[in-house]
Amino acid sequence: MPELPEVEALKDFLTEHAVGHEIVRVLPVAISVLKTYDPPLAAVEGHEVTAVHRYGKFLGLETEGGPFLVTHLARAGWLQWKDRLPDGPPRPGKGPLALRVALETGEGFDLTEAGTQKRLAVYVVHDPQEVPGVARLGPDPLAADFDEPRLAALLAGERRQLKGALRDQSLIAGVGNAYSDEILHAARMSPFKLAASLTPQETHTLYEALRGTLTEAVERSRGLAAGRLKAEKKSGLRVHGRTGEPCPVCGDTIREVAFSDSSLQYCPTCQTGGKPLADRRMSRLLK
Q1: How many angstroms from the chain centroid is the CA of residue 219?
Q2: Higher pLDDT among residues 51 and 225, named by residue
């Protein structure tokens, strides 16, 4: 799933390539991605893109005198930039193409989604706050006013485990499964540690890991073409998606805890005092 750093990079890329250009056509291929009907999708046509914004993991194109085109790429969605779009309208089918946006220059981008679980979402709204997912977002962890006391206030009384708290978009916007693993590894904290149990020093450590991990990922992605962002994200991850590999910090074997629709990765030596966490999937198999 594209998370804050990748969506920030896509925002920068579209700012450079789309701002100042007119949207001439928006071609839906998978109607299921459209989550609004008023204004209609065609309402953005004929309007110039004036700015591109990121709201957590949402990406929004602002148009002059027209509505916003907002998208959430979900788990398997992506944005593919085309220096020259194919001639003729795309054909609906079973492929990954969900939506095409064409500019007056002949350039544009496709929104695609792999797999069978179609969750990619597109909204046409007068105000991004009309999108339910945007309206419920918590503060952005890279915002100038997101300081250590603010993180402490968010976690105070939070009875969930750190992994779940970091992924909650209404608590902190933009962090997903991958970067929550990376942040907790950098902080040397167990994903199962209760958020409300942090000492002031631990809160400081988590704050530094949160800001540092995300800032580093954004800097690695800055200036890259949209098509290179996925590979850059994967190459920069230290523990997420690296089950069975050695930890780059201590050399211990990276382990995994699997859930019904996701998994987390961690280093026992760095994060849990050398003790493996219970893998619920394996526990069920052993019963």
Answers
A1: 15
A2: 51
